[in-house]
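Re-run requested by the PI after the first attempt was lost when the workstation crashed. Everything re-entered from the original request form. Ligand of interest: iron/sulfur cluster.
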Amino acid sequence: MKHRTIILASPHGFCAGVERAVQMAETLLAEGAKPVYCLRQIVHNKQVIDALAEKGMVFVQEINAVPRGATVLFSAHGVSPATREAARRLDLNAIDATCPFVTKVHNEVRRYADQGYSILLLGDRHHDEIVGVASEAPSHVTIIETQADAETAIVPDMNKVAVMTQTTMSLDEVAHLLDILRRRFPTLKMPSEMDICYATRNRQQAVRQVAGRVDAFIILGAENSSNTGRLAKVALSQGCPAHLISSLEKLAAINLDPVTKLGLTAGASTPELFVREAIAQLQTRGFDQVEEFVSVKEDIHFRH
Ligand code: SF4
């Protein structure tokens, strides 16, 4: 029988921001401050949400759904100034799990807006992170999702334009949009480091390096996770078929008969337990060898 191999592309799974947010949630629950409310999904992953809900966390979509005086956790994606203000009005004990990399983009938007810049914000207009960042200075921010947006964005002063990005954008997508924007706005200001975070860069790089060596790629994570979805796009951009898989049932339904070498990785909000369970299932399907390809070692942790 021929050997079939999984190549696990690493770094994979939890990043420092997700690790911090989940630990903050766990600590609050362990301290017995029940019920603890969380505004929207703390990170975009159902397994994580279900595990916290099981321990007593209550997830709400709107800040007004949190009872006066209760404890509320803000998700890793950040919130708008209006939400912070509403939390103050409701006397909530607000605990902020916003990833520090996201906070940095909020601060940049405020700084450039205060100096009178128009801000072109690259990202998904419906994602919680972009909704929160844009709300720092709505009259200064134009969201750029597509090539057409980049080609048609209008600003009052061509010489006062700055660009910022969602932390989980694809490097290729950003490079493409920046080419257009630099052509249109030659004095475009960019933050000293681009906003795409280390975890997004590293996971994309690992997928890019493995994609040419495998017949197909499985990306473990939630459909609504921005960084996870972009890992699938990176594999596809290298000509490698990619499947975004959010549950063991969905993995079982994928036909892997023609695949001898399978790339596997997980988005930044996917728990390691799911990766281990996925590997165990794949082993029962004939993938008897597991190799890990480590693109770069990560050692970033945030204190909480
Ligand atoms: S993907 Fe990056 S920005 Fe998002 S939580 Fe993780 S470290 Fe923070």
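Saved to the shared folder this time. The longest helix spans residues 16-30.
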